[in-house]
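Hi support team,

I've been running sequence recovery on a batch of backbones for a student project. Most finish fine, but this one hangs at about 90% for roughly twenty minutes before it completes. I'm not sure whether the input is malformed or the queue is just slow. I've pasted the structure tokens below so you can try to reproduce it. Let me know if you need the job ID as well.

Thanks,
M.K.
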């Protein structure tokens, strides 16, 4: 009698998923739709992250997601088709286990795979000419990974007031800074490009903190309003050019400055005019701190 009771209990235990086989098949197709939606939404987010932030320490996780999502869609599709086929062939006991086994394998395998992915490099090797630098990833260092000629430069993103990298929590408004090696070619690059100025039309505005100031006015034309651009030039005692700056009507200035062994190109607010020299020196010291002996 006990044998009959045990058999009946096992029959009830295995009969429940069998009686609900149709629901398991429906669940499999629903999970497939949800997986495709996740593929689109998460895939777009990960793709954007890799496009605009490829050096972020979490970038390897985005790459892993892009590799895992197609696998997840494939497993979900196989589970839906296989369970539907089992139900069609009246193998009702098979359909639920196909769905459960497929998704257990996917979830467990995916979790283990993502857990095995570490963070990206904490430092990146970059070169300014022949000078070797090791720059933290928080500064989003773009540029040459091998030594080269004078044209080799490094582009960074950081907050000019704190010199913190753009990916650090305290940096809220990172700006791009470009660092070139100091040579004859880049000495000429410090001058404001001629297409931005017309010396015959520029009017002197006097000296400001050692900088000779000029203003260039582009007359209004049609619906375009009058444009005023202020230029500043700082020279050394021997007459050599030290810095130029072009300031738009929005209060932002593009700097081209010589500091130490570098030519620095970046944007900074005109309101920080008196701090420009200190800013150049701090930037050069920051770059020097990354030098690899």
């Amino acid at each position: 009698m006990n044998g009959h009771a045990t058999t009946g209990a096992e029959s009830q235990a295995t009969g429940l998923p069998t009686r609900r086989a149709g629901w398991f098949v429906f669940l499999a197709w629903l999970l497939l739709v949800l997986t495709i939606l996740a593929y689109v939404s998460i895939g777009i987010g990960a793709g954007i992250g890799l496009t605009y932030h490829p050096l972020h320490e979490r970038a390897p996780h985005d790459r892993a997601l892009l590799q895992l999502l197609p696998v997840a869609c494939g497993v979900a599709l196989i589970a839906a088709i296989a369970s539907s086929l089992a139900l069609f062939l009246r193998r009702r006991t098979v359909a639920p286990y196909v769905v459960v086994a497929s998704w257990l394998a996917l979830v467990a395998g995916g979790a283990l795979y993502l857990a095995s992915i570490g963070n990206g490099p904490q430092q990146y090797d970059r070169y300014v000419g022949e000078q070797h630098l090791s720059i933290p990833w928080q500064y989003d260092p773009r540029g040459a990974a091998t030594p080269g000629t004078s044209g080799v430069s490094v582009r960074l993103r950081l907050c000019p007031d704190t010199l913190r990298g753009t990916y650090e929590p305290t940096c809220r408004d990172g700006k791009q800074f470009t660092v070139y090696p100091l040579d004859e070619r880049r000495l000429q690059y410090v001058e404001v490009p001629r297409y931005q100025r017309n010396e015959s039309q520029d009017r002197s505005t006097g000296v400001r903190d050692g900088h000779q100031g000029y203003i260039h006015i582009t007359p209004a034309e049609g619906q375009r309003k009058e444009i005023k651009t202020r230029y500043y030039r700082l020279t050394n005692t021997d007459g050599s050019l030290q810095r130029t700056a072009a300031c738009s009507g929005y209060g932002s200035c593009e700097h081209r400055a010589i500091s130490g062994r570098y030519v620095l190109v970046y944007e900074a607010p005109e309101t920080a005019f008196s701090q420009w020299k200190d800013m150049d020196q701090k930037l050069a010291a920051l770059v020097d701190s990354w030098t690899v002996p």
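--
Follow-up from support: It reproduced on our side and the slowdown came from queue contention, not your input. The two ends are 86 Å apart (CA to CA). No action needed from you.
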